[in-house]
């Protein structure tokens, strides 16, 4: 996906899940506030960011192994730079 898609308004599953993962990682790695994350991702409301992070946390708690692996790979890539 391109940055403009992550920041855009489309809500298809192909875009929404990566956008929620972005929210989750911005909170977890960068320790940004919900408002800061919202500003970065297309001026979204903090409650939208909270929902996205909660959605990813829920998937991880429900043992979504594919998502866990993908997030792990992304985190490794980010933290190794």
Describe the structure.
This protein has 81 residues and is mainly alpha-helical. Helix content is 75%, strand content 0%. It has five helices and no strands. It has helices at residues 3-7, 13-30, 34-40, 46-61, 65-79. The longest helix has 18 residues, at 13-30. It is globular, with a radius of gyration of 12 Å. The relative contact order is 0.14.
List the main descriptive attributes of the protein structure presented here.
single chain, 81 residues, mainly alpha
Number of distinct helices = 5
The portion of residues forming beta strands comes to under 5%
- Structural shape: globular
Radius of gyration: 12 Å
Mean pLDDT: 96
Which structural class should the secondary elements be placed in?
mainly alpha
Separation of the first and last Cα atoms: 20 Å
Parts with pLDDT < 50 across at least 5 consecutive residues: none
Strand count: 0
Classify the helix fraction into a percent range.
over 70%
Largest sheet: none
> What is the N-to-C order of secondary-structure elements (H for helix, E for strand)?
HHHHH
